[in-house]
Amino acid sequence: YSRDMIVRGTNKFKPQPEEEIDTMQVVHEGIYRTPDYVLEVTDDMRTYGSVLDMIQGRIPGVQVSGNSVLIRGPSTFIGSNEPLYLIDNIPVDVSAVQTMNPMDVERIEVLKGPSAAIYGARGANGVIAIFTIRGRFMIKGILKFDMLGYHRPREFYSPKYGTRFDDLVEDYRTTLYWDPDIRTDSTGLAKISFYCSDISSTFHLVVEGISTEGKIGSNEKIIQIQ
Q1: Which of 13, 97, 200, 212 sits most deeply, having the most CB atoms within 10 A of its CB?
Q2: Coil, helix or strand for 222?
Q3: Within a 13 Å sphere around the CA of 15, how many CA atoms are in the beta-carbon half?
Q4: What angle do CA 17, 22, 25 make, to 5 degrees?
Q5: SS3 131
Q6: What is the pLDDT along the chain (226 residues), one digit of tens a residue?
Q7: How many whole angstroms separate alpha carbon 33 and alpha carbon 50?
Q8: DSSP secondary structure of 21-65
Q9: Which one, of 83, 86, 66, 87, lies nearest residue 74 by Cα?
Q10: CB within 8 Å of 58: residues ≥ 6 apart
């Protein structure tokens, strides 16, 4: 038994003429446009005990006193003057900044006034955005993962016995059949066929699927091949 798969389609992409690129710059951007100040972290800065120590005296208009940071400029007159902290665009409190490893920091960006308006009331006292190397910051309750792209499905290999050969290689397959897309008919039945191998043994049949209502089901059976 064999099945031919034909996929028809049109190419919607037109080839563009090649362009030569002399230099290319890759920038890790935030969700805002342009920060008011960017501190590029060097290797000697990463030897400091904390990220707040790295900021002290290096960013104009930013004052660090112990575990508190004050960004000079427009601020709220009621409540805390603490800025909004972001690590890889994730809002965190100052304790997360204090405990992070300075070796992981790539750069620090500061926003204040109109630049921080995108964050609303949370950014009224300014924003300190910390970006880690390769965005490897993790906080409890958030899982980061890289999603793979689409790939072309492969058709399961099965022998083609339609043509007779004088010298046939013996078939020692242990997996006889696999199909991820079996459709049942209006009565709920589906018919499949496959060639057995030359091994007389017991095989494990597993069927798993999902109904049109979204219900999942599975069944298993042992078959004996003589």
Answers
A1: 97
A2: strand
A3: 2
A4: 105
A5: strand
A6: 444 444 444 444 444 555 554 544 444 455 566 888 999 999 889 888 899 998 888 888 898 988 888 888 755 555 678 899 999 888 999 988 988 889 889 999 999 888 888 888 888 899 999 998 876 555 556 656 666 677 676 777 777 776 665 566 778 788 888 888 888 888 888 888 888 888 777 888 888 888 888 888 888 988 887 6
A7: 27
A8: -S--------SSS--SEEEEPPTTGGGSSSHHHHHTTTSTTEEEE
A9: 83
A10: 39, 45
Q: How far apart are CA 3 and CA 191, in angstroms?
A: 13
Question: How far apart are alpha carbons 221 and 179 in whole angstroms?
Answer: 17
At 119, the amino acid letter reads Y
DSSP 170-218: P---S-----S-----TTS---------S---EEEEEEEEE-TTS-EEE
Dist CA 49 CA 69 (whole Å): 16
CATH architecture classification, 37-135: Beta Complex (2.170)
Ordered by start, the domain boundaries in the chain are 37-135, 169-226
* Cα first-last separation, the chain: 19
